[in-house]
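S.,

Sequence below, as promised.
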Amino acid sequence: MSKYIDSAFSCLKEYVPGEQPKDKKYIKLNTNESPYPPSPSVIKAVNSAEVADLRLYSDPESSKLKKAIAEVYGVDSKNVFVSNGSDEILNFAFMLYGNVSGALFPEISYGFYKVFCDLYGIDKTMVPLEDDFTINKSKYMSTGKFTVIANPNAPTGIEMNKEDIEEIIASNKNNVVLIDEAYIDFGGTSCYELIRKYDNLIVCRTFSKAYSLAGARLGYCFANEELIKDLEKIKYSTNPYNINRLTQAAGVAAMAENDYYMANCKKIADTREYTTLKLRSLGFEVLDSKTNFIFAKHECISGMDIYTLLRERGILVRHFTDERIKDYNRITIGSREEMEALVNAVKEIVKGA
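The prediction came back faster than expected:
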């Protein structure tokens, strides 16, 4: 780091993305990307007249995109905010609401929550998960803090039921509650419709997982109109043209073919169940997942050893070093063929242990 950096940032422990190696071709099961391509209309839209118009700024209001999302989900456009990846929504929300009262979220969850708190000097409360890695709703009731819950949670994949989520929202009426639904389309139950009932709720979503657009960087959220205005205020104070022309076009086209993507999510969920059963038969503990990944550990082989041995075989998974989860690996659900390759590699590893 340079000598010019503000000392408040010099010790910041930044978020570490999943590795994107270039040394050889891997089966990538480490960053929760979709194994399926975008729909044909998305590819056509990105190659459309929007390319010729790249000399012009994109629509700062993203009007067509908001309308397309609103129509699919049966809400008003004024209740939709769109962003450069869902991380931008999280960034804005922590900036807006975190310093008011402090922030509270699970100790084991998406790593960016802690990073945003450290970045903005927010007082953070990280709540331990239960012994079975579930979230205990009683620890999130009437917190008096900006409360953030990933549902289903990452990296565990476990879902909290909608009734418990609503109790948490209702009990925190004086503070914003953000439900991060990045993985909701793989078998979970969304609570976005609760924005009609609660003015303190933000439901954050992404095009990266279910919609095969991780590289496009597109996120969105649902909320009360006044909360949307809060987010827009920060957007227009930092980066008004936050979503480029091609990404807006891709998002509109993806919404028009929502059935294609939901069918892919069903295929991923089916492959998830296949993989879970196979790994359990090989001595793995696999948590019940409602996401496009599973969280697994072996009874006799360390998580780091499994990660390393799979990497040597050309398969990438995500390993975490936190003490409580160091024996687990997060495994993205790829195509059926990719998961069969994973299972066969694991069989070799278990046999040689």
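The chain has two domains: 18-37+259-352, 40-256.

Coffee later?
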